[in-house]
């Protein structure tokens, strides 16, 4: 990461909040919490985003951190067999709007992060494609190897 100050500022504003800290109590993949997963996706998204000129890095990081901000345990029986895969992007985007006042663009980035699973809702922005890719890479690592993303996960201050 070249511009670590921008990354840290964007992450700290969200990850340092009490509301986002609730994500520490929910598992996302294997033994990885939603909190850890979200920070890892934001770090990888930022690293990828720095490779391109016309990427809004601040919106990219904010949306990446909040992409799974759905605030429930999807592993419990009543949620596991629900339509979680299709519905959680909307829930996360609505929660992000409610608690963090995200922009319409950031809402779209969160809303479309599950493509191609949500076939009718592909990303509309380059940042959306980046988050989509980063989420798939980090999720595969966490799911297949049942451990945290091998990169050093950023610890918000």
Features:
single chain, 157 residues, mainly alpha
| Rg, Å, rounded | 14 Å
Structural class: mainly alpha
Can you tell me the number of structural domains? 1
SSE sequence, one letter per element: HHEEHHHHHH
Uncertain ranges: none
Q: How many runs of DSSP E, i.e. beta strands?
A: 2
CATH class (first level) name: Mainly Alpha
CATH structural fold name: Hypothetical protein af1432
Describe the biggest sheet?
A: 2 strands, antiparallel
Helical proportion, percent range:
55-70%
Give an overview of the whole structure.
The protein is mainly α. The chain has one domain (4-145): Hypothetical protein af1432 (Orthogonal Bundle), CATH 1.10.3210. 58% of the residues lie in helices and 3% in strands. It has a two-stranded antiparallel ribbon. Helix 3 (34-49) packs antiparallel against helix 4 (57-66) and helix 4 (57-66) packs parallel to helix 8. The protein is globular and about 40 Å long.
Annotate the secondary structure layout.
Blueprint: H1 4-15, H2 18-21, E1 27-29, E2 32-33, H3 34-49, H4 57-66, H5 77-80, H6 84-100, H7 104-111, H8 126-145
Antiparallel strand pairs: 1-2
Helix pairs in contact: 1-4, 3-4, 3-8, 4-7, 4-8, 6-7
Explain briefly what this protein structure is.
The protein is mainly alpha-helical and 157 residues long.
């Amino acid at each position: 990461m070249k511009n670590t100050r921008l990354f840290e500022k964007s992450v700290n504003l969200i990850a340092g909040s009490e509301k986002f800290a609730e994500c520490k109590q929910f598992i996302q993949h294997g033994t990885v919490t939603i909190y850890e997963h979200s920070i890892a996706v934001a770090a990888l998204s930022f690293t990828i985003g720095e490779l391109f000129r016309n990427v809004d890095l601040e919106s990219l990081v904010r949306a990446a951190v909040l992409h799974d901000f759905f605030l429930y345990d999807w592993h419990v029986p009543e949620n596991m067999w629900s339509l979680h895969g299709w519905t959680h992007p909307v829930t996360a985007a609505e929660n992000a709007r409610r608690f963090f006042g995200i922009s319409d663009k950031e809402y779209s980035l969160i809303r479309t992060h599950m493509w191609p699973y949500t076939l009718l809702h592909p990303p509309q922005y380059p940042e959306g494609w980046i988050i989509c890719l980063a989420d798939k890479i980090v999720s595969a690592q966490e799911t297949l190897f049942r451990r945290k993303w091998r990169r050093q996960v950023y610890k918000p201050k």
